[in-house]
Amino acid sequence: QVQLVESGGGLVQPGGSLRLTCTASGFTFSSYRLTWYRQAPGKERELVASIGSAADNTHYADSVKDRFTISRDNAKNPVYLQINTLKPEDTAVYLCNVVTYIQYWGKGTLVTVSS
Question: Which of 15, 88, 106, 115 is packed most tightly, with the most Cβ within 10 A?
Fold first, then answer.
């Protein structure tokens, strides 16, 4: 059974940093692209960053380039999202996604950026 569990969210002041973790199980982790999405209140879900199976071929949304870094550890099955220079508009639930035969989602972790 595929499971994706996000953690690391919280309340942070503008300009701060967080590292989000998605712990995956139930599939061959090293074989699939992993993707972080976010969904802000009242807005559509948007792709934030994705990373290829070999930790290569990363892709970022224009709105987070130079501030977010996605990485993975194929030996231990987490995928990380390092978020720097947080802005209030980064406030959202951040979700982990993988597509094997079907699409799987975690439940998300809430990031709130506020002073």
Answer: 106
Cα separation, 66 vs 89, in Å, equals 16
Q: Mind listing the pLDDT tens digit for each residue in 60-96?
A: 999 999 999 999 999 999 999 999 999 999 999 999 9
**Residue 60 forms beta bridges with which residues?**
49
> Residue 24: CB partners within 8 Å, gap ≥ 6?
2, 3, 4, 5, 34, 77, 78, 79, 96, 98
Per-residue pLDDT band for 56 (boundaries 50, 70, 90) equals confident
Contacts of 97 (CB under 8 A, 6+ apart): 4, 34, 35, 36, 37, 103, 104, 105, 106
Residue 45 host element (H or E)? none
